[in-house]
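Structure, all two chains, one model.
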Amino acid sequence: MDTQTLESPLVGRGARDGGRLFREWFDRLNATAASGDKAAYVFVMGSLSELITTFDIPTVFPEINALQTAVRRVSDDYINLAEDHGFSPDVCGYVKADYALQLKGGEHPMGTIPKPSIAVLTNACNTYLKWAEIWERMYDTPTYTIDIPGTRGLPDGKPEPPEDFERDWRYVENQIRELIPALEEVSGKAFDIDRLREVLAATNDMGRSWRRLLELNQSTPAVFDAMTDGTIFLGVANALRGTQEGADYFRDLVEEMEYKAANGIGSILNGEEKYRLAFVGVPCYPIFKRFYHLFADWGGAFVTSTYTWFASGGFYLDFEYDLERPIESLAEGLLLGVRGAMDAMLFHDKMLIDAIDRFDLDGVVYHPVKSCRTVSTGLADSRRMVLENRDVLCLFLESDMMDKRVVSEAQMKNRIDAFFEGLDSRKRRLAGVGDVAAGSGRNASGE
Amino acid sequence: MSQPAIDRTSGAIPMRLLELPEKPGLDEAIEYCRELVEDADFRTVRRWREAGGKVLGHFQVYFPEELAHAAGWLPVKVRGAPIDRREADSKFGSYLCSILKSSMELALTGTLKVDMFVTHPICDAARNLAGIWGRNLPEPARILYLPQNPNSAFSGEYLTEEYRRVQREIEEIGGVKVTDEMLAASIDLFDENRRLLRELYDIKRQTPWLLAIDEAYVLVSVGGMITREEHNELLRHLLPLIHERDLHKQDKIRIVFEGGFCEQPPLDLLRAISHFCYVVDDDLLIGLRWILEDVGHEAPPLEALADAYLNKSSYSPVQHDLRKPKEHMLLERVRGAQAEAVIISAAKMCEPGLDEQVAYSQGLDAEGIPYFLTEFEERMTSFDHLQIQLETFVENLLFA
């Protein structure tokens, strides 16, 4: 590719715009905190942002606030404060960071986070339930749990009886209808179904772009890193879900990635993609950038990630809201999205095997974290299944997404280096190169 | 579909699984139950299966066992065991509680064989169990989604249908059609069991010197591994013997033990506590005592069971119900049992239990009720340190 191609204003636009939009979103939360206006606390899996946006109530994502403390290297301050108040070192770091943030009056590296006027959650993660109970106790915040029945067992290939799905759908819809008066009360605004249609249309637009984005990473080299860039995209997708601003961003992003794919521009900064990897789990936020380089320096690119499935609010599924029946369709989308997220965490082995084929993967990196047992508990067994079914190498790295005390970088590096040596050796063996002991090239560090 | 091989509607004991004389002495029965609960061999379940009976294993906390019973099955509480793990550890990551791994170990080694396994998304770790079980064992492993929004007007209807779904699957596997009459008979039997367990707990509350915590525990726990018909017979026989026990009140403080809703503390830990305290109430194996009143016959059986789960029930850290803030429920338990202090425990790495410790301790602080915080693991064998701490705690209260 020529210099002009690399210097195109399109390349890197998504990262720049994503950062800007994210800062602007935090600025709006800051303004809400300053004015004392209402805010809704929601979670990434099943945020119901579309419904809440209809009432013009800003949404706060405590998970995003928490991970930002880790990325900005202050999570230990928050975690220590929560532990001083009795929280165990063995519970979710996100919860502890948020608990401490509340004790600090909303103080956050990105500004001030408003207090919750209402909390809306699902059972996608059990910790959500315990978490919301904290706000009930602290502020007497009204909390609404939308109970989402997930898949009842390991998918066995048999289709779910339609009447069973229908029943679950109605259950979710009825709960959404129960929530609407509460949102009317908090916002002081009457529910406007046409406004909901507009919001759902923007989400549909965003979802189409998201799926295209994931698909574009099938190209070689992959056009974005599914772990690092993917996290930025997920942040914007969640924060701006159901907004025109968000839909426009993702349309632009697809344009950029189409351009990169057409011109063979990969995701690795100053280097070449040598190994195509899947990332399973939640990133290691306390050393976010260095974690990326531990792989990228060897030419390892994360071309897909379960994070972009389960944390995308169902965007990875081929579903669009039916604007003719917005509430029913919102319920269906919520049911499918949350169920899909649960499947992507609990029953993802077959999805990974499929991804190995579609993305032409060399290896799978599992990153179970102490903080999140939903995502991490089944990974060892899932790895076993994947290895039984596909000839790839797997790396199992245990650390945390928040707590630096559990992140042993030197040990991690040793294991990652050994993993790549194994990948290199395997590649040479498959290529029929005799001297497998010969050294392999590493990319220069981009740090 | 056929008639069940084992008729459960008569209330008669279908098969004796305990190796006890018909009218055992109290000490003999307690000792036998203790041995049965501790040996982790599940020999009662094995005997049932060898006789051709079907087994439904259900993970903690609550499962409507009537559904399995009515179909002629033996419902068995899967609640881990204090065993060495050789096969299960490789299926899991670190940072997890022991009960998940030991339950899986029992299944993988064939120590506990079931015809169907049901788990519940009670916590972030346990919700993975169905997937891991299903990938490693041939029997169906299912998730029962008990409502986490019991405050919705639609949760009862949802749960009724969810129970119907489970019942349908039990019928398909067992080849037995369950009628409302069969289910109603099972509800009667379990209502009696719950009444007897309530009576047992009344003894603990009113005359705790007659029944130590570890003794009460084994009498309750054995119910999860034998038929309820036999458990009822045992309790009917033993309860009067407990009342007649010639034991005198000692100078011990009255405490509530909280934190045994899922993974179970070792019996020796409970015994160590009993040296210093009368445990007048607890949440050990709360799933067996989840329903607080008779389910009865006012509604069709499945509907009645669903309603009882939602509206006639206890509390635990793994159920979110706006009507039951956990710290308030604990205070009710403390006051109801006239307890002077609380042991707030949690299994190691048990996230809901550890989260709740914060709420419980803050709630008790606000009321000026003393408490002792601790953690346990089902395989713990040394209690010296805990005993010294607990003794100090108790002495501080007694001689304050």
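The longest helix of chain A spans residues 162-187.
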